[in-house]
Design a protein that fits this description.
Blueprint lengths: L4 E2 L5 H5 L4 H14 L9 H8 L3 H14 L2 E5 L9 E4 L2 H7 L6 E2 L10 H9 L8 H9 L4 H17 L10 H33 L1
Parallel strand pairs: 1-4
Antiparallel strand pairs: 2-3
Helix pairs in contact: 2-4, 3-4, 6-8, 8-9
């Protein structure tokens, strides 16, 4: 089976939405109910009252979650009045038990759930630019702190964006031009530092 690619990391929601919105809702709710105990023992009737669904509809959702591996049966009720006990399986564990079933993230993108500098720059761009990993590494190699990079971007971006049209510039062009801006700033700082080191020598030789 060919693994699908996305700009985002895989998650339980990506799998569960294919089973129906109720499965996703029940799963999310079960994690909250289970908490640290990792045990979910809410009957189909009680869950049906909570979600406003017939017990058979809830039973179908429980069955789909069990068959998919997101619910692990710990104890099977012995009669209609005794609830099954499940362990809701978190996506990280589920992925290890179900290799090659997850969504594959596209290589090279720094997204909201990735590098913090990428997150901060994404926010500073008004969510217009999703920064690529190799661009982030380039910025850091120039010797600025993450906070400095973000501040320089905030100063530079409004003027740059106001001169652009369309949407293509939001992909790689803006990231490249900002890198050029940082490079120029680094060169200027190095030049000033060099001047500061040589000036005392010039004065003392007069």
């Amino acid at each position: 089976m060919e693994i699908e690619e996305s700009k985002f990391y895989c998650s339980a929601e990506w799998h569960l939405v294919k089973m129906g919105s109720l499965c996703a809702a029940v799963y999310s709710w079960s994690l909250k109910i289970a908490g640290k105990s990792k045990r979910f023992a809410v009957s189909e009737v009680d869950a049906g009252l909570y979600f406003g669904r017939h017990r058979n509809t809830i039973l179908t959702a429980y069955k789909k979650l069990s068959e998919s591996g997101f619910f692990k049966l710990i104890y099977a009720g012995k009669n209609a009045f005794e609830s099954n006990v499940y362990e809701p399986i978190k996506h990280e564990q589920w992925a290890k038990e179900h290799p090659n079933c997850c969504l594959k993230r596209e290589v090279g993108l720094t997204l909201l759930n990735d590098d913090k500098l990428g997150q901060d720059l994404y926010a500073a761009s008004g969510t217009k630019i999703k920064f690529k990993d190799f661009r982030i590494k380039w910025y850091r190699r120039l010797g600025f702190s993450d906070n400095e990079i973000v501040e320089y971007f905030r100063e530079w971006f409004p003027g740059y964006a106001s001169q652009q049209s369309g949407k293509k510039w939001r992909t790689d062009a803006a990231q490249f031009h900002f890198g050029e801006r940082l490079t120029a700033l680094r060169q200027r700082k190095e030049c000033l530092a060099k001047q500061a080191r040589t000036e005392p020598t010039l004065v003392s030789s007069i």
